[in-house]
Backbone:
């Protein structure tokens, strides 16, 4: 099949224009926002132009279906609260281009998907989690975002597009192209990463409750300050995790909410996010025990109430050997000596889809490893190389 | 003069009903909110009923003026975002009752004030700071609250009540009754605290800026995580301040705002409040140096940008001997052996008024020392004892 690089890049920039914000090529297109819904309506139109049948499930996962059994390509088109133009969008537009090129070449049959809420406004890769059957819609509908809006309420914004359930049995496999979102390929000057496996992730909210009080008249010795509890927990945790982690293990406190969050009041309550990732399920479990024990120790020592939210997350997943080898052969043909096999430190929809069918992934470089930020970018030559590897691998299956 | 305890308590409960919220006797009546403006209109009416002339300055400080030279009594009627029913309100309603009782007794001349924004929506005791001449209205108008609303914008809510400047020269002194907001009187079973001096306060915003990035693909070693910077700063500061503080010194990080505050993103920016209080100006200065040096050290070590907001605060203030002695004699008469001289760990409008005239303060107990919270309360017998001490002291001047 013949990839049309100009057509591919034009679609990528047209999608970027929907929700364009911030500096550089930044976009603000969180799941179910007006910009996200507009982008999905635009994608549906491009799918129809490519001769694909558009179907949308109750979650808002958007499919463009080829006739009969087909290989499924795609990613997601929702963004972080402040995101880049390629995180998810690259995989969706590359899938669209390969489906078009395959159609023009008389085959193979290629379907396209843009999953919903991969960025986790309501959880972790919520759309593909529900589609894969790991989470039922009714339970997911109860999830709320940081502003307290429920998923049930938010997804009404897409009600007009919904056609019904989309049967996974029609797909022979799933391949997702994504930016690396890390520095490895950019540092080594390589163009393609063929993913060996995707690390697992754990994510939960933790709450410390002490005593809200006056910041001038409450002696330090009798305070039950929720921020001090979070700070002590963080310091102890950093020390204790060193004994169990590898250089590729990561853990993050990315969200902190103090109550009442005023400069003259000792904070009575702190809610924060605790997220950790590793390629080894056992290690993720050992980290969870250390996190829970450390939080319990801090709460006990400071006379605070402690509660843990529901544990979200996904197990590490190995890529399908046949699909992965097809990507490796195509990478060597398109970028000889300028590609590598590597794990994915980021979570992807492929992790969920692996419950249903063989999956594989490939990476394009991220300049300076920056992602989940407006500055996220990739050289166009690398974007084109990546879509050519994807097309060549699909043609060879 | 004869204090009417029932009339005093009824007014106190009527004021509480305006903005009543949360549990127990909680109120939500922040400066310039609809509830705050309604409360000031109600107070203006009660002042007129008491034969006082109502005047309101541009800041929204509300005065009820007696004829000719008079002693000024009062406090504030705005509340914390989540406040109690007595913080400020006690001093205003007690002043109103003493003014009424003095009027009925044919003297002395007593005026009443409710200062605006004592709780610092826009700074620190903003209303009395402006009235005392320490801050000009134009500069104060540029201050913004945590939501980004400017004081100039917020005070429009009271524009209809403003009569113009209120001349401090008509007042011979200022006495403020307030709840202790700490555990000392409640623990000792005493009814009255006669304040010796008010501690000084320093308050500033601190900002760390690092690099916002993906929480799965950014190795721990290369992160520039703004929350980690705040946590390390807090731990180092707690250790270092131990060497310069006394048991009555306090320091608080009560407000923390991470950006973008999402669980899957390494926080690129953190803004937090740093507040500290002590009775000794030199110690406040030594603490400031340690705070700035520690923040600079953390920023340098982590490759972060560091910036400090404007330094707000007030110097420690000693109470006027004549007024303080009148309060002490009245306390011994009303609650023999059940009162003490003590410093005020909390900041009060009296600190600002001390620039203009002699000032003194007395405290009523706070049950369990709780304040700046819905649970704040005081036994009615102690409230009545406090207003009787205030009336007796004023009559004796």
Residues:
């Amino acid at each position: 099949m013949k990839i049309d690089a100009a057509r591919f890049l034009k679609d990528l920039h047209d999608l970027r224009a929907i929700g364009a914000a911030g500096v550089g090529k930044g976009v603000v297109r969180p799941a179910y926002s007006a910009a996200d819904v507009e982008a999905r309506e635009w994608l549906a139109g491009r799918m129809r132009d490519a001769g694909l049948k558009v179907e949308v499930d109750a979650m808002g996962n958007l499919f463009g279906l080829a006739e009969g059994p087909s290989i499924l390509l795609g990613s997601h088109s929702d963004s972080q609260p402040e995101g880049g133009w390629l995180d998810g969008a690259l995989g969706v537009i590359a899938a669209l281009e390969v489906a078009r090129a395959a159609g023009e070449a008389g085959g193979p049959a290629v379907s396209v998907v843009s999953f919903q809420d991969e960025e986790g406004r309501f959880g972790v890769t919520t759309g593909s989690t529900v589609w894969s059957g790991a989470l039922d819609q009714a339970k997911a509908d109860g999830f709320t975002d940081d502003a307290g809006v429920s998923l049930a309420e938010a997804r009404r914004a897409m009600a007009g597009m919904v056609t019904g359930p989309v049967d996974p049995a029609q797909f022979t496999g799933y391949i997702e192209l994504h930016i690396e979102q890390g520095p490895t390929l950019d540092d080594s000057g390589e163009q393609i990463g063929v993913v060996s496996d995707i690390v697992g992730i754990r994510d939960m909210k933790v709450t410390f409750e002490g005593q809200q009080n006056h910041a001038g008249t409450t002696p330090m010795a009798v305070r039950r300050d929720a921020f001090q509890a979070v700070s002590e927990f963080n310091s102890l945790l950093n020390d204790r995790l060193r004994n169990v982690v590898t250089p590729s293990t990561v853990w993050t406190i990315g969200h902190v909410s103090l109550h009442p969050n005023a400069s003259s009041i000792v904070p009575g309550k702190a809610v924060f996010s605790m997220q950790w990732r590793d390629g080894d399920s056992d290690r993720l479990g050992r980290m969870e025990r250390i996190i829970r024990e450390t939080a319990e120790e801090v709460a006990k020592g400071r006379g605070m109430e402690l509660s843990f939210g529901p544990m979200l997350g996904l197990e590490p997943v190995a890529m399908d050997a046949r699909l992965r080898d097809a990507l490796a052969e195509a990478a060597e043909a398109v970028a000889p000596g300028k590609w590598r096999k590597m794990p994915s430190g980021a979570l992807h929809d492929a992790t969920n889809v692996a419950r249903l069918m063989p999956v594989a992934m490939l990476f394009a470089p991220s300049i300076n490893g920056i992602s989940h930020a407006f500055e996220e970018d990739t050289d166009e030559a690398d974007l084109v190389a990546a879509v050519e590897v994807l097309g060549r691998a699909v043609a060879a299956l």
